[in-house]
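Spend some time on this chain, tokens included, and walk me through the fold:

. . .
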Amino acid sequence: MDKQRIFLSLILIINMTLFLPLSVQAKEDFSLNVLLEKKVDGILYDKRFEGIRSKIIDLVRESRVASISVAVAEKGRIIWEEAFGWANREKKVRSTPFTMYSLASISKPMTATGLMILVEKGLLDLNKPVNDYLGSAKLVAYEGKSSEATVKRVLHHTSGLPLHWHYIYENGPYLPPSMDETIRRYGILVTVPGEIYQYSNLGYGIIGHVISRVSRKSYAQFMNSEVFLPLGMIHTSVGIGPGLEDHAAQRYDSDQQPIPFYDFDHPAASAIFSSAHDLVRFGMFHLKCHLPDQIQILKDDTIDLMQHEVESKRPGQEYKLGWRVIDNDHGYRSVSHTGEMEGVCTELKIIPAENIAVVVLCNNRYRPIYNFDSEILAAILPKFAENLRAKENKPDEKKPERFSPPPSLLGEWEGVIKTYSGVMPVKMIFQDDGDIHVKIKDQLETLLNEVSLKEEILSGRFYGEIKTEDATRFPHTIDLKMKLYSKRLSGSANANSGRWYSLSSWIELKKTPLPKKD
């Protein structure tokens, strides 16, 4: 293995000398179709993609996005690699297939890949409580038992951890807390482990922390030495690695204004940067392509496990070990992940049965790009195209009806919101007409909006304030997600400020008995 690593390191150095001049040249002399005249990995542009390519060019010309970078691989070969627009408008840097984009949540399958390396080495057991691998800061269970929050359930988003995101901007007044401090504040299990699917950035932030503690390296060091470099991903790093600054795309808002750089208290969930070229090769590794310049960092059986492992058939269990899997994606089983946050929309999708990988990266939060992977696949796979057209011709789904509370909810409920710094009394009143009134002590009574009750999960949003040091930094609403028991509601109350954070506290309410009649 050591000899193989040395050999591949030499190959990587040679690759860098070949690839970097392309990036430099692109800054000096670039047009939207420059790559049509070049070979990428020895393969010419594939004209089957002319339709989607024209759409991307129009988006860039109309300044609806700053840039888009695309890569497609089929049967072990990259068949299309092209970038359009500006990686950095202010510096006049054009995007190339080697430009590093902020990936957002595509960081998760990469983090899961790193974790599975430790599993294969026998250093970690997926079925053990994640607390076994943490330090002094442990997960605390308000529902169920913390011992049932296994590593596997954290990977599945079924551990009981709530929704969470926390962006820290470089021009802001505070720094990211340590992972131990984040766990102390927000590492709470608000549902019984294994019971409910809840997407949680904090969960994958904790997985990165576990990787660091078990490997005795920083998360960034481990991912670089054990995942990125062995797979030949020389334009990939946690954050923007040293020496890679000139290759990173600037994030832009909807007005094409640069967004200040931001970090996270959950880096393993969101902080990786990568190029379209590197990311499609990562997808090819998970297609078990066995490229000659990649070290086989995971066994094929482990790759299969990541795409198939599931606890149950509960809703949401299309999420496996770091991947979202759809069994019937227009006639094919797809394995994918998307990423979305300020200045970021990204997608990686693989079709294992056809040995196809598709990557689309954008440095704007422009959601229509999520349709591009389907258009690319339709250009390659006739059956996919046929099923896609059939779906497009179906009538729109009916709009959801106004919330109507079941009799078990009607009446008054009282309880508390428990934050990491104290307790806040709260009351909710469910009325016959569907209105739900919410009152936190010393705050104005308000209505719960965007109400939904599905499979005993009540969700909604209201105007209020979670009075913790973190949450009071910016105005926010409070998002509720609670499970309905016989005479009890419990779950999460999240301070949601939009672009800055969604920070969770535990909420529990019990139904107030009706007064006895004389």
